Amino acid sequence: MYTRMKRIVLLAALLIPVGHLSAQTITTKLSRAWTIFEKDSQMKSGIASLYVIDTKTGKVVFDKNSRIGLAPASTQKIITSAAAYEVLGSGFRYETSFGYYGNLNNDKLSGSIYVKPSGDPTLGSWRWKETSEDSVIRRVVEAIGKTGIKTFGSFTVDATGWESETIPGGWMWDDIGNYYGAGADALNWRENQYDLIMKSGKNIGDPVSITGTRPMLYSYDFVSNVTSAAKGTGDNSYIYFSPTASRGMVRGTIPIGEDRFIISGAMPSARNQLLATLNDSLSKKGVNKEFMNLVVDKFSQNKAPMSVTNFHLEVSPPLDSINYWFLKRSINLYGEALAKTIAFKNGKSASSETGAGEIEKLWSSKGIGVHRTELNMHDGSGLSPLNRTSTHAQVAVLQYAKKQPWFGGYFLGFPEYNGMKMKSGTISGVKGFCGYHTGKDGKQYIFSFLVNNYNGSSSALVQKMYKVLDVMK
Prior knowledge:
- The chain is an alpha+beta fold.
- Helices cover 32% and strands 26% of the residues.
- The protein has twelve helices and 21 strands.
- Strands 3, 4, 5, 6, 13, 14 and 15 form a seven-stranded mixed β-sheet that branches.
- The longest helix has 21 residues, at 18-38.
- The radius of gyration is 26 Å and the shape is globular.
């Protein structure tokens, strides 16, 4: 009888599906790895969340704190990106049109050269040959030349429907003057960035001078409070520049003995920079502007013209290409531009707040991340420390995206870290990874791993997070 019972138990064990045993093994291994991670000294006052599902079945493989909203940092970009595909479409392209209005008598235009932007974050970008600063300026100048205009009144930028505030509420003062803190406008230029060129002293403590900018900035200057530090200390300088100011302040340190040390900043007004650059290029061709630039938006007294003669159109790369750089290089400007574009496409005012709200509503309508709970977004990029997202909501978005026809372009933008396709996120006290992985056994997983309020170095924490994620390999 005893022998017979042993045979029955053995037979029953053999009948258990291999996949079920595998899932149990992964869950057990993740639990063990998690326990070690959670007890680590870097997590003494921190909180973490990990949520993993089986891609094919959707079954939960591991769940710890998955419904708690945590600051996601740049992992929030996967939510904005998927929303852009869903609302705008993978083939979406931004368009910036150029025209003129008023009387054109011989070669003199009594009115304005009219610019109608759409929030294109790639205009003037160096990431594509066709969008580069020189390429765009050359095409626009040539197009104006073909109209025969030699004198015109002003440039008019029609920003109807776009809010004038480029910086989302909640962004930190330490961020907004630096390249990663570039806000999105209706008319963007050169990714709203410039390079500040500095020269340090020979001795520690010597003052650092600013020798120039690239490109030349119009109507802006800087005060340097930067000092020279020991060799090998790297870039510890920050630019402080209010979007409405004409003078910026640079503080911190750079290493001694540097003749051409470059840090990148955010242009206070990329719109003005573009128009000034264009005006200079036209002047060299004998085309002259007589008056100051105009803007049409809800705060100005200017009205959009009744009739415009369009003569040129700048078209951005498609969304697939924009998304590649957005996720691969984690460009905050692209996230803010996409969020505002989503709001504009939905007939709403193009602001960061409205864009974030429209993204929340989109996913809530699909049963993902209840509005203002699991998804509480304040921007499109994740730079704001006010954002709160659950790992459950992030995985649900990733799972939804996996089933869509646009998934190929979306997935292509995911960077690779630790041998896994995943988007990272980093702000002060926050580290996260989320994405997709196929193990050596062929099992496919979707996951999100967020850590808030850890102590110690980010690099040390990342290695410990990798050890947990390695279980899926």
